[in-house]
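Subject: Sanity check before I submit

Could someone independently write out the structure tokens for this chain? I want to compare against mine line by line before I put it in a report. The sequence has 876 residues.
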Amino acid sequence: MTEQTSNTGTPRRIVVAGGGPAAHRFADAMHARGLDGWHVTVLTEEVHLPYDRVALSKALTDTGVDLTLGSASMWDHEALTLKTGERVIRINAEAKTVETAAGNSYPYDELVVATGSDAARLPLPGAEHAHVYRTLEDVWAINKAIADLTEKLGRKINAVTIGGGLLGLESAAGTGQLGATPIVVNGAPWLMNTQLDEGAGQALGRLIEAKGFEVHGGVFPSAILTDDDGQVTGVLMADDRIIPADIVIVAIGVRPRDELFRAAEGEEQVFSLGPRGGVVINDYCATEIPGIWAIGEVANFGGMCLGLVAPANTMAEIVADRLHGGDATFPGFDTATKLKLSGVDVASFGDAFAKTEHALEIVYADPARGVYQKIVTTDDAKTLLGGIFVGDASPYMSLRPLLGRELPAEPGAFLSAAGGGDAPETELPDDATLCSCNNVTAGSIRDAINGCGACEGNAPVRELGELKGCTRAGTQCGSCVPMLKKLLETELTKSGVEVSKALCEHFELSRQELFDAIRVLELTSFEEILAKYGTGAGCDICKPTIANILASQNSAYVLDAGRGTLQDTNDRALANMQKDGTYSVVPRIAGGEITPKKLGVIAAVAEKYNLYTKITGGQRIDMFGARLEQLPEIWKELVDAGFESGQAYGKSLRTVKSCVGSTWCRFGVQDSVAMAIKLELRYRGLRSPHKLKMGVSGCARECAEARGKDVGVIATADGWNLYVGGNGGATPAHAQLLAKDLDDETLVRYIDRYFMYYIRTADRLQRTARWQEELDGGIKHVEDVVVKDTLGIAADLEAAMAKHVDTYVDEWADTLKDPERLRRFRSFVNAPDQKDDSITFVPDERGQMRPATPEEKGKVLLGASIAVRSGNENEV
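---
Independent answer below. Compare away.
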């Protein structure tokens, strides 16, 4: 062990070779422990500050994203020096110096090598024309190449990624986001074969193929083909197939950069290397030469080098601890993996392949849904050994900290996809690792919450952000944040600290409490609600929230009685504002069904007002580019033709998507179109905490993507299966099964109850998926309330929905009847007939107009529109 440094005399010199995440973590760990008596010099060959390689996929799709690790101000410390563009090329162990490619020499007392790894390359003909996926420069080059090729070829290009592991799938997903067709070539028979067994790999392949990926597995490439100019044209496979390609990315893994430890020709090999590379280290990360340490991917421990962030962080902390006189040891590699790939959840941990003698595998597989869940236990089904989850990884966070421990319930209870609901409630032991990236235990988090002495004044932590900063939990991959938040709230409640659910600074009540108070007291205006329960004048949080609550309880015109000033921009205009200040018009097309005559009306309106038209993902037609004063004119023509508002602007029901169903489709078992129209006409205009989407599929093939909706209905031979709590967006969720084989009447009754219970109890802007996750009991609680009526409120919920259905009035039809309401649709209050010509359009290359760019303004223009105002989200 290295003796702890003295705080007097000349500082001991630490040189770090490498500037990746492991090097950054070591410097940060030294900084956190105190740098008195030390000086740390980090030598990195890249020109960037150390950055997060785990998040490289973000830089692939957004070249401007900042992936810098930690705070750049850390490097301002007088005892920390970061030298960029300095690649270490040689270690002189006898002289205790390192040399760089720039010809500089740096003396050291302690040397920490964190050179990481290089992207593995293929020894194939044409391989020099392929890209790799390892550094910022690599992903920036891929981004530029895809953009250049798309423009040059004038079509969607084929991006082939060779490698079906973690890096390969991230790369392929990024190329898809950049507009290319993602194609994956994988030598193994199934994807992510290092982390997943065959069942899970096949489920993953099915899911990503449904996302638009092409997957070619079980065959290796033999050459990358190019034309005479060196432009890639395809990949030749070992079975003589040619896969068309315009760009090829090789992401088959990494190789440790251990050249500093390899003897030059004619010299004696001093350092021990692993059979597949990497310098061998002991259990406190030291090499055979005193004073030389290795951390991260270059370090070989137990015959393995591993490219995961958690063990690299642990190694960095161990070396910092040892240099400060500690006795920390490396426990071995944690191979747990969790990621979300193009909206698909994947997780693997522990003995995922059940290699332990007599291990049991408890498996739920649904190939049709692309869901696979496996828990591995000891032969008595009590002790958790590992698991794999694909398609639905919700049990992972509950199970991961219990690895090696006795499960609190029988294993099948954790298989959420099998209909078991949420994982059983678990009280994590203090020594259970909650954040594996930073090796933070539940006990450390509890200590911070209750006042551990690490924070100034021994103050207990009360906020999630403060807790993350204090403990580092949740600051790397972020997958543990939900459990971190739950543990914080649990500990605060135990301590008698009330967890604030105040709506905003003006209302101490939560949205649910405010909703109930308004409903019981039959309050109808913001002023009387503020006077009774609030303070101040209100804000942009409480005003639209209360406007939404009032609209949920009363079907009165949303802009009357002073409610117009409470609404968001889109609600005030009854339309979605666009980036150029114009608005979009979305008539309701219930269930996606429309007659040719009505299609003709939409076409005529779009032609007359020169509107850009687009079919939305929810089977409607969106018309863009309408000026504010044009909205009443456009809606007059649409309403006269029998259309009504699609409410694409409101926190309300958007669409009910449907497949063609049994009327036409030979696979359909129920009339999905008729049911979709029935549901859309029933719930139209229903204001809620967030937008609502529904889907109805006529068979198990699920063409309407019903399980990606807040409420999904899927036909069976015996009726309808009802799924709830799904959504797309930034954090997608599959809807969960609530009830099976329902007749039409029961189906509608359950949906009535579900929607009204959600509207009454959810937080502002909370999607149904997140609401269900936070309910005590999750989907089981929803089933108890909606299906079993354990709270005895079913009749009240049904009556509330019946009131909405009976009093529904189309907002645009109502607007057109009242001249006073029409007064708000003017560009200038004091000049009602004047139009604002500050926004202009130009012809688009696809035959429609679009907003002019700043450079194009002043040229030949098609039209004009209103000035830009602050706006809201468009329909997604």
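---
OP: Matches mine. For the report I'm noting this point. Confidence is low (pLDDT under 50) at residues 1-8, 860-876.
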